[in-house]
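Limitations
The structure tokens in this dataset are predictions for the assembled complex, not deposited experimental models. Users should treat interface geometry with appropriate caution, especially where small molecules or nucleic acid strands are included. An illustrative entry is reproduced here so readers can see what is and is not provided.
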Amino acid sequence: MQRFPEIIARYEGWTCQQCGKPLMPGKAQLTYMGSVFDVELPKCAKCGMVIVPEELALGKMLEVEQVLEDK
Amino acid sequence: MEQQDLRQWEWLCIQEEPPLCQATCPIHVDVRLFARHMAAGKVDDARKVLAKTMPLSGVLGRICDHPCEQACRRGDPRDGDEAIRIGSLERSCVTQSDARPRSIPVPPKGKSAAVVGGGLSGLTAAWDLARKGYAVHVLVPESEIGGVLLAYPDKVLPKEALVRELELMASMRITIETNASVDAERVESLLGEHLGVYIGLDSPALIDIHLDLGFEPDAIDPLTRGAGRPGLFAGAPIVSAPFSPIRAALHGRQAAVSLDRLAQGASLTASRDKEGPFETRLYTSMHDVEHARAVKLTGPDGYSPEEARQEAARCIQCECMECVKVCPYLAHFKGYPKKYAREIYNNLSVIHGLRQANTMIESCSNCGLCAEVCPNDFHMGTLCLQARSEMVQQDKMPPSAFDFALRDLDFNVSHKAVLARPDPDTGACEWAFVPGCQLSGATPEHVRAAYDHLRANLDGGVGMILHCCGAPAAWAGRPDLLANVTESFRSLWKELGEPRLILACTTCLQTFREHLPEMVCTSLWETLESLALPQGAGGQGAYTLHDPCTSRHEPAVQVSARAMAKRLGVIVRDPDLTGIYTECCGFGGLMEAANPGMATKVVAQRTTDNPAPFLAYCAMCRDSLSRQGAKVIHLLDLLYPHLAREPEPASPYPLIRSGSGPADKHENRARLRNQLAREIWKEAPEPMDDFERIQLVLEPEVRDAVDARRILAEDIQRAILHAETTGRRMRHEESGHFIACHQPAAVTYWVEYAPQPEGLVFRVYRAWSHRMVIKGVA
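Predicted assembly:
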């Protein structure tokens, strides 16, 4: 599982409004073009809703997307 | 792409054709590379280049009669100065260096050939045959080896030079018999012992041998060197004066090829058209070449090393590269179209593994400048569009390449943006104004002003059609979608009674000419030229006029745009590349969509090579050229100066043009459509979608970031609406901000926002997106 503790740390203080639970680092699965990746994301301990941090979406994830697209 | 298609594309690009000197050289010495090494002072490397092709380079390099010089591009009387003195450079090289390429030992073929004559042609035949693995028996009638070579003064060809080459030959499978008696009987027995015999006639002792052997020197086959009977070959007769050493070498070489083919049972004549001098197709421009005469020979011994270096440096290293010189995109991939065609072919043929040409295929602007400057009209855009279409069919088009542009197209043919109405007063429709998506999105106020102006000045009724022409579909490799869009346009046109169309955009013009040829189209500029100017029209100052690339083959449009600019009181100057040679602004072919960095590079070249301010007459060109801060105005800004906003958009990313508030082109088009329907045709507005009620507030830097990430206001509005209605959102206690996400199709959008006290107003702090899909999160 890929972990990005520094990025996740920036999302302390966010809570899931539906459940009222704070977001904690938790496992999530991302898929793209047939590949599946396990990553740790800020996640609601109750309903499982996650945030994909901006830093991750525009950084590592974009890189992987481009590799998978053979860019 | 079939291999046959690749061959056709490859044939068009002449960059890999040999230069004139090499094609003219009977044995095709790589003179260009030789000169490059000489210019760099790398004499040993230069010598290796000679020795790679030349037999006995220490001899031939001294005495070659250099027909290459006659062909040298610099020596062209029309635009050159003086040919490179290649012969003198060779001489300088071989006197300075004895370097040879390492000869790779060839396994013996187990066959032998005979050569009669110790002249250059016989020695060449022996040299070549031995290098191919044949044992060679050389019969020299004289006591000394060399034939006519022995007649050269020592100053020109020192004895040691020949001795040195003969030493090398002695290390090969060559036996040389001097004082050999050679007559018809001996030749007959040689023919029996060996696979064939070559008679090198460049030897005084052999001047009459053809009489004995029963062939005429004039009747020797010019290609195979065949001399009238199987296995017998001959060349280099000294009767055909003046004696040409390089021709003698060619004859020996041709005979060696024939003997080799004979040994293999292959055709003696097939595919030999490139042996000996031939015409090259390479084109080399002298446009940027500084004229300089040849370096004078000062000493009696030829060029000194320094003089040789200087003279070699005059070599312009002939190549074509005409398209690469004018196109930042073609230059970016560090090759030329022939190479690119191969890469694209390989890319399309990949079953497993990386498709390395995707970015290249996606990034071409399809502007066609390459075809204009190419001697063979190689159109990289046509090749790339064909490849894109194939990638789409194979389901191999990377999703991120064009889907933003195609979503834009979807919107522009949706009921929110489409409008087709006849003249509101008369219901007649002899004309219809088609402003195009870009003008409608960038400056909708110009659409209204131009329409009012046309209606006031044209008879027969002027209608209006707001609808995409389909160009983005063609660019994205989607002929299916293009056909749908053009069909939809055609039916609107028919409903209006087939009006003559007035087009503000030359991309629409180009697309309709190709795909809807039954429609009569004229450009807005040609139409306006014959009409009175609107009140208050005009400007001043001097502008660099930028023709859109889609006007390249529309000279009438370009002339009208210039005439209008003049009428409007401004001075126009042409950029370095203009008219038929105009450059793309970086938007064409969806370059900007697939590769924003490349588009920026293209704009940078255009706006730094030419002085600002610029005058454009395509809305997209205007927005694109201004992306790095160049001042650009549109011809309509001069026509309707009272509507002018800032002369350049505030955003460096004008894909979504900045205006007041988070206006984007979608919104502008939708607003324009509704405004025209309401104000001109007195229709009720289209009902609003719920998400459209969400009002956004973005600081300029947030808006720029959002634009650069290709996130539409609509995507943000939908994400907020979804969060606000479902309650599925994250909340930050301290700041009171929310984070919400929304995945309308392939892309997931995220937004951090905070509700404002008044109504449905939300302040947006940031927005981002990704294509990876989160499993289990809606």
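Some entries come with short summary sentences. For this one: The mean pLDDT of chain A is 91.
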